[in-house]
Every structure is written in C-alpha cells, then in structure tokens.
Amino acid sequence: MKQYIDEFINYLAVERGLANNTLLAYGRDLAKYERYFEEKNIQEPSHVKRDDITDYMYYEKNEGLSANSICRSLAAIKMFHRFLVRERLVQEDPTHLVETPKLWKRIPGVLTSAEVEAMINAPKGWKWQAVRDRAILELFYASGMRVSELSNLSLENINLDVGYVRCTGKGRKERIVPIGNKAKEAVRKYCETARTKLVKYPMTMELFLSRLGKRISRQSLWSIIKLYARVAGIKKEIKPHTLRHSFATHLLQHGADLRSVQEMLGHSDISTTQIYTHVDKERLKSIHKEFHPRG
C-alpha cells in the first residue's frame, strides 16, 4: 500500500499543485492508515472493504482523535481510493458509501473594529521594526490573506499605484485582492525606509524581510500578531488567521456580498465562506427589524 500512497502524494504535488503543508498532512494521515492495515495483515488497497474503513474510524476515535481530525483523515482516505479507481489500480472504491461525520462548524474568533485599530496602531515610532510591523498588520487586515500568502509576497506581487495585491493561495491559485489607502501608505513607507535598511542582497525581491535580510517566516508573522495583540491589551484568544477572519466578518457587516468575500479570501467552495455569516447575527437582526413589515 505504501507504493500506492507515494504515487498518490506525487500526483497531488505535481498535477494538483497542493501546498507542501497539505501534502505533509495527507502523508501523515495515510501513513497511519497504512500501518493500521499492515497490522491487520491487509497490504493491498483492493482488499480493503467498507467495514474495514468504518472500523478504522472507530479505532481513531478510541485513540482520542477529535471529530475534526477524523474527518480530515477520512477526506485523505477518500481522495486516495478515488485516485486508485481513476488510475485503474483497483476496481472499487470502498469509501463510496462511507459518510463523513456531521460536524458543527466552529465559528472563528474575530476582533472588533476597535480592537483591530488598536492592534494596528500598537507598533510605535520610526524604527525599522515598527514601520515594517505596521505595514504587515495593515496589509494583513486590508487583504485577508493567509499567513503563508503574506510571507511569500514579492515586490512584483503588489501594485501601490493601483492598489491591489496578487497572492498565491491553496492549489497555487492566484487571486487579485484590492487594498485600501491606509495599507498602501503603510507599505509604501516601509518600502521607502525600513526595507532599504533590511536588504542585504541587491536582487532580493521578497516584500517583507527579517533582520537578517531574508524572507520573513510564517512563524515570525505569527509572533508579530501575538505581540501586538498583547500590546493592544486584547484578551481574546489570538490565532494566526484572526485578522483574516476579522477581515471577512467586517466586510459582511458593512454590506459586502458573500461571493465577493469568497473571491477575496480565495475559497474554492462558498460553504467555507458562509461560516462568517453566523458571526454577523446582529446585522441580520437589524435588517429584519428595519425591513420586515412587522419588525
């Protein structure tokens, strides 16, 4: 089975262009899947039956995995078996009738507009670090990018005259996201002052640089977000995508349509974007009160 899994991961990397972190997650889930069936003396995917997969899901549950983790694992297993059928390596897909456990979608934690404002204003002064970090926070909130997308930005990806950023998301899909005046001003100030001090090599094209003159890492961006949330006195739990979640929620609060938010976030499925509508219950209540005849 290991050989087939390796072929599947290679297919995801080469033909589907999935991100490296996604490939690693699929690889871990399927390696565990393979070990389970090896202990059951089932080494050929064609010998796996529907009941075997159901038993495996119960095994994961007994191992203490959360429902979300089991669903993620099952998604990888389903893709793997569909790949085998499509490549005619096996005749049947044993996952065909295996249902994914129904889960409540967790509403992401978001900041208020005032909290975002306080966080963005937290970097103080004209030193390179404060100027860079202010630009990072402004652009992050203005675009709703993922942390990895922000880390990978190059100078050629941003147009400050027109006011847009081009980022590459999951599956190497590119999208254009507009940015506002405050983000443009902060990034322009960073490029004209702080970035020139950080550049160690003339051909460096990365937008945001570390003190060593290298591309700023996702881990460093995460540390910056946590630092300024703490400086701003925000007591809520902060996660890497908190500003992304806040970006989407605030757009919807101010009347943006769901399809536009989906495009800006880079979601392939609008159901992923719909989770933000649950955050905005107060706005829906106010609309109902204003427009319903008996509101």
Q: Short summary of the structure?
A:
By secondary structure, this protein is mainly alpha-helical.
Notes on the protein architecture:
There is one protein chain. This protein is mostly helical and about 300 residues long. It has two domains: about 1-85, DNA polymerase, domain 1, CATH 1.10.150.130; about 115-285, Intergrase catalytic core (hpI Integrase, Chain A), CATH 1.10.443. Helix content is about 55%, strand content about 5%. It is built from 13 helices and three strands, in the order αααααααβββαααααα. Strands 1-2-3 form a three-stranded antiparallel beta sheet. β2 (about 165-170) and β3 (about 175-180) form a beta hairpin. α1 runs antiparallel to α2. The protein starts with a helix and ends with a helix. The model has no long low-confidence stretch (mean pLDDT about 85).
Class based on secondary structure composition and strand pairing: mainly alpha
What sort of overall outline do the alpha carbons produce when their principal axes are compared? globular
Question: DSSP strand (E) fraction?
Answer: under 5%
CATH architectural grouping of the largest domain: Orthogonal Bundle
CATH class categorisation of the largest domain: Mainly Alpha
Low-confidence stretches: none
Task: Describe the main β-sheet briefly.
Answer: 3 strands, antiparallel
What value does the average pLDDT take?
87
Secondary structure elements and pairings:
Layout: H1 2-14, H2 20-39, H3 50-62, H4 67-86, H5 113-120, H6 128-143, H7 147-151, E1 158-159, E2 164-168, E3 174-178, H8 181-198, H9 218-231, H10 242-253, H11 258-265, H12 270-273, H13 281-291
Antiparallel strand pairs: 1-2, 2-3
Helix pairs in contact: 1-2, 2-4, 5-9, 6-8, 6-10
